[in-house]
Amino acid sequence: MSRVYRYIWCCLLFGSLTTGIDLLAQAPTENVLKIDALLLDAEQLSVSDSAILLTTEALLLSEKEDYDQGTIGARKQLARLYMEQGNFAESLRNLLQVLPLLQSEDRQQDRYEVYLEIGDLYAREKLYEQASTYFSKARQLDDNIVVWERMAANHVQASELEAALTILREVYEYYETKGDYNGKVLTLEKQINSYLGQENYEAALERNKQLLTLVKREGDERAQAVAYNNLAYNYTKLNQPEKALKNFQEAKITNDNISESAILDINIAICYYNMGLFDEAISSLTSAQINIPNEDVKRQCAANQLMAKMYLNKKDLYNADFYNQLAIEKAEYANSAEQMSSTYRQAGLIHEKLYEFEEALRYYTLHLSIQDSLKTVEKLRQQELLQQQLALERAEKEIKLYQVREALQDAELKRGDEARRTLQLERDNLELQAKEDQDRRILAEKEKELQATLALSRERENRQQLLLLQERLRTEAQERTVAELEQQQMEQQMKLEQAEKEEELQQREIEALEQSKKLNELKIQNQQQLTYGIVGGLLLVSLLIFLNLYRSRRANKRLSQKNREIDEQRAAAEHERQKSDDLLLNILPEPTAIELKEKGSATPKKYDLATVIFTDFSGFTSISEQLSPEHLIDELSTCFSAFDDIIERHGLEKIKTLGDGYMCAGGVPIPDRDNPVRSVRAALEMLAFMEKNIARKKSEGIPYWQMRVGIHSGELVAGVVGSKKFAYDVWGDTVNIASRMESNGVSGKINISKTTYELIKDHFDCTYRGTFEVKHKGAVEMYFVNE
Q1: What is the 3-state secondary structure (H, E, C) of 484-500?
Q2: In angstroms, rounded to a whole number, what is the distance separating the alpha carbons of residues 767 and 757?
């Protein structure tokens, strides 16, 4: 028994009944305690996969128990764990699913924190527009300095420097009001960097001077060194090397860090070099090399390379080669690709001036090789970044569509509840009216009964007198009847006696006649027996014929009725079969549907040449937030219905829709060789429909989204999946590459693979895009189809 329940039991046992009952009502259930324990255990684990398993178990149990606090905690913890693994899409999905649980007023702070986390996630992945949206939502809940600084940093990363400066001015005013020295220093430095990014060196210079005045007033020598260094850099950008040199020297005077003194010496050397004072530059650079720590190999490399450059400008090629070789050794030791490339290039230049052309060519080749590698690495990094951004966009689209569907269901339920309440109110009013009518009827009936009772009391007296009179008359009539019956009985007795005498005479005559009759009967008895046998047989045969005829008619009547019932059942079955056939043809291609009906299953088929089309709407997430759920579904339905008509005209087969994505294929289920051409024509017609739709919406000032299209041709397998809810689908690398064509495409364009290009190049004008790295596929050549 847990400590909570032991304490409650003690309260109940020792007389504090009220306290015990109250605590029992508020005590957490066993599952709630288990959820909290799972979350605590997961938080303490160092292995993220194990922590995710425990947290997922807590999430499922929380949703089953409708324990919102547990669901919120589990999803936030999953978001953090997936973030640590670099799975940003799953992290975003969990954060978005937390938001619907935080709509109440007392959850405002939690909702604010989740908005900040989502904004940070988007900013980290360089999706600055989405990050700005969620920072703005957080600011609506709590307009504070934390949100301001996040928004400013996001604008800086997005190169929206004017917007960043606007917010940074507000931030500076806030810190100035609070008297926060460190806040003012950091904000001025951010303003300076923003102005430098705009190449507004004059404005940056003003802020640098303001910063220097501030740190001097506070006596902050460490910050003064930084301010002098920044001011010197500012003067360098304004092509004023003398003033830059003076401020670098002031920074060195106020600086007490040896490593940073080396950096200042390098900057001073650069100033001397720009002023044409090579000896002073070399002297300052020599001083810098002495102060650079041994472990700072990259800075040693930079210093030696700069020294080599200075000697190269003095045309002292041997010293230039000596220091450049030192720089090469340091760059190779640090394995710094950028520094190796730069030093190899400078070595090639030095050996070229020494007329050592083979050595120069070797260094130039090394330089170009590293440059190609750096470009490839950068291109791969950009591709990975793009894939991650698309994954985040799709994750948010899925959650938005899921929330839209839930909102529609909630709206339908609310409308149903309102209709039920209205009907219940009307029913209650009718019942009340009926009850009032019934009460009035009962009252009227009671009044009638009272009047009838009074009338009956008067009638009873009259009726009793009438009954006495009727009884006397009935007695007199009975006496007369008895007398008449006695007289009739006497008359009948006399008649009976006379009849008996006549009967005796008749009996004697009969006996005589019977004697003669017996003789005649003996003669004709034989003849009668024969006749009766014949007649009886005929009657029996007639009876049997009649019975058979009657039974036959009844059987024919029942058979006719049964035939009519069978015909009706056959017509109903045929109607239902036609409906099921029509429904099956709406779901599956006709050949596949026929095979499924005949065999009970459909065999997957391989196609040597098929073409797959993927489409996706760009800007869908941001625009969907501006539309009502009903409007959003109508817009998607309008586009997809138009696509259905287009692909039907071009003989393509619709496969499925994925959120705001649309997938179809040519060359299935009936193989052909011209499906690439027909697929591209259908895609062009889809784009034309979208452009007409966009033009109309622009003229009406309505938000709109654009469409990307990707196409690839090749082998695939197609067939039916599912045993209850059938679906026609396609599989294979062709499908995957077509999807990559869409995700690597551009809005308003049709992006096709080289394979598809070779099949349609004689029919369409295309533009070569180049080679792009595709996830799991390597380098793929792509083309745009021109209209």
Answers
A1: HHHHHHHHHHHHHHHHH
A2: 10
CA separation for the pair 19, 320 (Å, rounded): 89
Q: What is the pLDDT of residue 482?
A: 54
Nearest CA among 97, 87, 114 for reference residue 401: 97
Residues 11 and 23: beta-carbon distance below 8 Å: yes
Q: How far is it between the farthest Cα atoms of the chain?
A: 189
Cα–Cα distance measured from residue 5 to residue 204, given in angstroms and rounded to the nearest whole number: 66
Per-residue burial over 508-539, b if 16 or more Cβ lie within 10 Å, else e, is eeeeeeeeeeeeeeeeeeeeeeeeeeeeeeee
Q: Report the C-alpha gap between 181 and 186 in whole angstroms.
A: 9
**Gap between the Cα atoms of 78 and 56, Å rounded:** 8
* pLDDT at residue 767 is higher than 90: yes
Residue-level pLDDT at 298: 86
Residue the block writes with tokens 């089953």: 64
DSSP 101: G
The residue ranking higher by pLDDT, 519 or 96, is 96
Q: How far is it, in rounded angstroms, from Cα 469 to Cα 481?
A: 19
Calculate the CA dihedral of residues 136, 137, 140, 141 and round it to 10 degrees: -140
Three-class SS of 228-261: HHHHHHHHHHCCCHHHHHHHHHHHHHHCCCHHHH
Alpha carbon 10 to its chain's center: 50
Q: Which residue has the higher pLDDT, 626 or 651?
A: 651
Average pLDDT over residues 753-769: 94
CB-count burial class (<10 Å; 0-12, 13-18, 19+) for 375? exposed
Q: For residue 327, which of 375, 261, 278, 319 has the smallest C-alpha distance?
A: 319
Q: Which two tokens stand for residue 320?
A: 């230039």
pLDDT tier at 218, thresholds 50, 70, 90: confident
309 in Cβ contact with 325 (< 8 Å): no
Q: Which residues, 6 or more positions from 386, have their beta carbon under 8 angstroms from its beta carbon?
A: 743, 744
Q: What percent of the chain has pLDDT over 90?
A: 14
Q: Which residue has the tokens 């239902």?
A: 576
Give the single-character DSSP code of 219: T
The answer to whether the predicted template modeling score (pTM) of the entire model surpasses 0.70 is no
Position 94, amino acid: N
The mean pLDDT of the chain is 78
Q: In terms of pLDDT, which residue wins out, 412 or 372?
A: 372
Q: CA-to-CA distance for 279 and 267, rounded, in angstroms?
A: 15
Among 205-209, 269-273, 465-469, 744-748, the least confident range = 465-469
3-state class (DSSP) for residue 356: coil
